[in-house]
Design a protein that fits this description.
The protein is α/β, with parallel strands linked by helices and 407 residues long. It has 12 helices and 18 strands. It starts with 6 loop residues before the first helix and ends in a 10-residue tail after the last helix. The structure holds ligand LLP.
Length: 407
């Protein structure tokens, strides 16, 4: 196991680059990728990093260099991936509810495409017929994932074509003689139970015989990482064992086994990320002592949006007595990072670190309250590199069009 960054290193980075600051430890990303590769060695699974978790161009390049492919959810993510040097053949574009023109653009860029609606499937078939292979995202009607906000495979989810509409899918495919190369599902994020993936596979295996050109089964992402000490993560070895034995039971198509694809986001980058803040104000009230840090849900929205738990530490006073606090932000709206959290005694000016901040941290940040977005730093082979500058005032005005009329 890669050692997490030491508190002294984090403090040094905070002194050097200021706070709030996102820090990514690349060796941890590599370790997570190698864990997946090792576990799935026998099945030769291919991993497409779900770039929506963190798209800094340096992180994308690093992930390309360690050998992963990339999964994109928008045409701009596709363009970022190309910019980072991924070949088009290693870029998967899983569209959801988007305009057909964006799918056409993806086709022009020659990336791998998954389509998630009958309407776009029909348009794709009409335009490209048998000329361009495509994957279909299905909704298996399974409830999976950490909570409802991050569950995407259940029968009220907007994602994918419901598997119960398979006859309509087949009619479109037949009408346009389409070349269907992959079937895709992604049932949610933070899925601990390996059997959920097996259930998805079984549902897909009931329909694979309809698709003679099928080569890939894409099981999406959603592996759970531990966010509390001692919490369970998805057992990757068990998952690999169960998935490969499910595939071994399935008859080969045209003498060739179906290949397995995954799209991990959190699993690759969550634990590699640290979010570093500084205490602005300590406010003692009758019921609660508030620690107000120089950030808020504008920079890390996960606790407020998903009730996500992030481990929090006061790295400036590791030996201090444990006390209970509410850790809050400094924006003009309730933005609680954690209630009733035990921390080493906090003083104004102390550095407070949030763990598991690599996935959907910076990526979901905003300029709410006209605050600057944080800087990002990458720690690679013991060296630190600034990979995104903190916003400056001009960034708040960029793209605004001051009207002479109202000067
Ligand atoms: N593939 C597809 C099609 C997806 O929609 C997602 C995530 C992934 C792969 C990667 O899932 P992961 O391995 O990261 O769980 N913002 C939320 C998570 C939303 C995930 C959205 N889709 C959070 O911060 O918990």
């Amino acid at each position: 196991m890669i050692n997490p960054l030491a508190p002294e290193t984090l403090i040094q980075l905070a002194d050097q680059y200021g706070t709030p600051l996102y820090i990514y430890h690349t060796e941890k990303i590599k370790e997570q990728y190698q864990r997946l590769k090792t576990a799935f060695e026998k099945t030769d699974a291919v991993f497409f990093y779900a770039s929506k978790a963190l798209t800094n161009i340096n992180i994308l390049r690093y992930i390309k260099n360690i050998g992963a492919n990339v999964d994109c959810s928008s045409i701009n993510e596709v363009k970022l991936a190309l910019h980072a040097g991924f070949p088009a053949s290693g870029i998967l574009y899983t569209s959801n509810g988007i305009a057909f023109s964006e799918i056409e653009e993806a086709r022009q860029l020659a990336v791998i495409i998954n389509i998630d609606s009958l309407s776009n499937l029909e348009k794709f078939g009409e335009k490209f017929g048998h000329d361009y292979p495509v994957g279909i995202r299905l909704r298996p009607n399974i409830l999976a994932g950490g909570n409802l906000k991050i569950s995407t495979g259940h029968d009220k989810s907007k994602f994918g074509i419901p598997v119960d509409q398979i006859s309509m899918v087949l009619a479109v495919v037949k009408k346009h003689n389409m070349l269907i190369r992959a079937l895709h599902i992604h049932t949610g994020s933070e899925i601990e139970d390996a059997d959920v993936f097996v259930k998805g596979i079984e549902i897909l295996f009931e329909i694979t015989h309809h698709f003679p050109d099928l080569e890939f089964i894409d099981l999406g992402g959603g592996f759970k990482v531990a966010s509390k000490p001692g919490e369970k993560e998805t057992d990757i070895s068990l998952l690999a064992e169960k998935v490969s034995s499910a595939f071994a039971r399935h008859p080969y198509k045209n003498g060739k086994p179906l290949k397995i694809w995954f799209e991990p986001g959190k699993f690759l980058v969550s634990e590699a990320g640290f979010f570093l803040t500084r205490v602005n104000v300590l406010k003692k009230t009758r019921a609660v002592t508030f620690v107000s840090v120089d950030s808020g849900f504008n920079h890390l929205i996960r606790p407020m949006f998903y009730d996500a738990y992030h481990q929090i530490e006061n790295i400036s006073n590791p030996g201090g007595p444990l006390k209970n606090y509410a850790v809050v932000g400094n924006i003009c709206e309730t933005d609680t990072f954690a209630w009733d959290r035990s921390l080493n005694e906090v003083r104004e000016g102390d550095y407070i670190v949030f763990r598991n901040a690599g996935a959907y941290g910076f990526e979901m940040s905003s300029n709410f309250n006209s605050r600057f977005k944080p800087a990002e730093v990458m720690v690679m082979e013991g060296k630190t590199h600034l990979i995104r500058k903190r916003d400056v005032f001009d960034d708040l005005l960029r793209n605004q069009m001051p009207l002479p009329l109202i000067l």
